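Progress note, sequence design subtask.
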């Protein structure tokens, strides 16, 4: 019997079904383009943001300190009150407005103007001095900046390098620009020197405060001054904890990546071991505990602080960076040695079976002594321990007997 076909219905090759396919492929190409271009762009933006912060709060203040120190050491300004103005002085093209001269130069120029220049007698007293006379005595010419005046030669050196709108408005500002031009050439080399000075200063500060005297001084300042100011103490303590976490040297036990069953049994998550747990929690649990940070994706810098038994965690062959990448990518970026492939899975299972199964009594006792409730250390741990002490029979324990994950994984 011939198979009936619907002449009016669209076939699989019709344009109606092909259009969504083209749209989906276009969307796929667009998302793929974003996935390729966004990582380098965001990386560049973050690096530029960090560089701007370092320049604004480290390099620029250090550069200003270097320039100010050199400017005060080489400055040759004089008080404006010791200099004089004269109406007969001609304007100089490099100096906007009036300039001042020493009293000795004014007297010499006045005497020179009073000399007879012709048989008819001396020049008029209100006549301007020729510019050539001033240029022959530029060592006695100063440019006033409020209460201080800068020698003409220093001012002209800066005016030749900077545009008019960037000219400083103070005498010390002129010398800051002058030392930059004279000793460094430009701000780039000055910034490089500032970075070197900052690195050396941080090195010596770290060496000084690593000693006992320096540690005592820092502790004294924090306890006497910083911690007594209400708002400052709260902000300072939080910032200090973060900086100590990232920049203080820690032992290897504080840089472990582990896996644990959280938020309930059967669900596994990775965590970062930070320290041993609190004393009272350890006493209540009656076994060694560790404190771990369970990160949240895609922001592993935040998370939950949990105290878990040492026997309940599995040490992972992961570095801190690999664990952060795993959390940031929501599990997409898996290190090559941790990818589940048939070959690696078979190899790992062979290693576990080669170690031999744990004793049956240990399995039953470990399962019966597990506390009930959510999380690695749920509520009702005392009742679970009492039940385990009453019987070792797997049938009397809560739930069917199954292999203990602590024995299956190995204690930390």
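Output:
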């Amino acid at each position: 019997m011939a198979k009936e076909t619907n002449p009016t219905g669209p076939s699989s090759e019709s344009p109606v079904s092909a259009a969504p396919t083209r749209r989906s492929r276009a969307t796929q190409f667009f998302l793929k383009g974003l996935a390729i271009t966004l990582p380098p762009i965001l990386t560049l933006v973050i690096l530029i943001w960090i560089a701007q912060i370092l320049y604004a709060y480290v390099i620029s203040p250090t550069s200003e300190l270097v320039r100010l120190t050199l400017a005060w050491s080489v400055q040759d300004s004089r008080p404006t009150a010791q200099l004089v103005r004269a109406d007969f002085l001609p304007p100089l093209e490099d100096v906007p407005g009036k300039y001042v001269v020493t009293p000795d130069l004014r007297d010499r120029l006045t005497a020179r103007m009073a000399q007879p220049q012709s048989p008819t007698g001396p020049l008029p007293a209100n006549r301007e001095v020729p510019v050539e006379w001033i240029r022959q005595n530029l060592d006695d010419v100063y440019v006033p900046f409020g209460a201080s005046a800068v020698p003409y030669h220093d001012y002209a050196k800066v005016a030749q390098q900077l545009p008019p709108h960037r000219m400083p408005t103070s005498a010390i500002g002129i010398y800051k620009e002058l030392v930059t031009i004279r000793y460094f050439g430009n701000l780039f080399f000055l910034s490089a020197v500032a970075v070197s000075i900052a690195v050396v200063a941080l090195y010596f500060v770290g060496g000084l405060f690593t000693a006992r005297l320096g540690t005592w001084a820092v502790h004294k300042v924090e306890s006497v001054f910083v911690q007594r100011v209400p708002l400052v103490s709260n902000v300072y303590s939080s910032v200090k904890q973060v900086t100590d976490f990232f920049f203080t040297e820690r032992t290897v036990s504080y840089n472990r990546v582990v896996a644990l069953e959280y938020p309930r049994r059967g669900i596994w998550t990775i965590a970062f071991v930070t320290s041993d747990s609190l004393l009272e929690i350890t006493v209540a649990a009656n076994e060694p505990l560790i404190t771990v940070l369970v990160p949240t994706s895609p922001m592993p810098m935040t998370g939950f602080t949990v105290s878990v038994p040492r026997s309940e965690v599995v040490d992972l062959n992961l570095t801190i960076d690999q664990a952060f990448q795993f959390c940031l990518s929501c599990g997409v970026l898996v290190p090559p040695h941790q990818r589940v492939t048939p070959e690696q899975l078979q190899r790992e299972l062979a290693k576990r079976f080669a170690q031999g199964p744990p004793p049956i009594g240990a399995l039953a006792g470990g399962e019966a002594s597990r506390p009930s409730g959510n999380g690695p250390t749920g509520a009702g741990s005392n009742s679970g321990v009492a039940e385990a002490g009453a019987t070792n029979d797997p049938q009397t324990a809560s739930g069917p007997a199954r292999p203990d994950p602590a024995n299956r994984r190995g204690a930390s």
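Confidence is low (pLDDT under 50) at residues 9-13, 118-124, 360-412. Work on this subtask will continue into the next period as scheduled.
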